[in-house]
Amino acid sequence: MSDRNDRQIVFYTPGSRALAHPYRIIAAGRNLVDPGVPFVTRRYHHHTLILTLTGVGRIRMQDRSYDAGPGMVTWLDTSRHYAHGCHRDHQSWRYVWFGMQGYGLDTLFDRPDVSGNPVRACRGPVADLFENAIANLVRKNRMTDANSAQIAARIVALFLQSGSTDGPMPDLPEPIHRAMQAFLDDLSARWDIEEFASRSHQSVSHFHRRFKELTGISPKRWMRQERINAAKYLLSTTNEKIALVGRRCGYPDPYHFSRVFRQLTGVTPSRFRRSGGP
């Protein structure tokens, strides 16, 4: 990385309270590099999120290359082969970043719509959240762990809610991508496979077959996983009653919500909220 004066890196060793939170930010900083600086390739074995402020970065992952322009967020699993640096056609690349660990991040990253679409233009107060991540590590007080978990969870949620910067998600046909996005935009609706298929203008049987071929799981299972992922985020970052969280995620019956949540996570919603995971 560049040795320019505005480079900043803050490291943090979480305390014992970090075990009570689903995510923890372990390092954060900012950097400015030019095309002459070698690409970063070192493996850190954690997940890193990068927000481009100015210029354009070049991201290489899984034999594919992506351009990260201003306002775009890049999600890297640094345990895998990757490289990033300033795009050779631009004078500089300025960015902020943080590295995090946490429950379920590997599973989230392995989703086809994430690993196949790791550079996105995210909506919401993303820049403020990245700056808060750095400031939170600098302060290092008794609230650092809790604030770290909340900041990371909010940015992950904003990333998951954002679509591709170039149209449909790579490796997914546009009709299926459209149906998936419609579902994610309205989790509380009474979705079924017929409604899901109709959003892609396909028959139920054809949609089910193509969806499973492309994602490796059935539409029903995917919808259930996405609802529970959203519920985990709300349980981690809000004080809403568990029944309300269930309704917002498509489970109007709290007993059914608790049963499905436990099937997928191994714990009840109330225990997950207390411990941040099993």
List the keywords.
278 residues, alpha+beta, Jelly Rolls, Arc Repressor Mutant, subunit A, 2 domains, six-stranded antiparallel β-sheet, three-stranded antiparallel β-sheet, 11 helices, 21% strand, disordered N terminus
Layout of SSEs?
Layout: E1 8-11, E2 23-33, E3 47-55, E4 57-61, E5 64-68, E6 72-77, E7 82-86, E8 93-102, H1 105-109, H2 112-115, E9 119-121, H3 126-139, H4 144-161, H5 174-185, H6 193-199, H7 204-215, H8 219-237, H9 242-248, H10 254-265, H11 269-275
Antiparallel strand pairs: 1-2, 2-8, 3-6, 3-8, 4-5, 4-7, 6-9
Helix pairs in contact: 3-4, 4-8, 5-6, 8-11
- Give the full name of the CATH homologous superfamily of the largest domain: Regulatory protein AraC
- SSE topology string: EEEEEEEEHHEHHHHHHHHH
Mean pLDDT: 81
Straight-line distance between termini: 37 Å
What strand order characterises the main sheet? 1-2-8-3-6-9
SSE class: alpha+beta
Alpha plus pi helix count: 11
Net shape: globular
Give the total of beta strands: 9
Reported by name, the CATH topology of the largest domain is Jelly Rolls
| Radius of gyration, taken over Cα atoms and rounded to an integer in Å | 19 Å
Strand content: 15-25%
Query: Percent of residues in helical segments?
Result: 40-55%
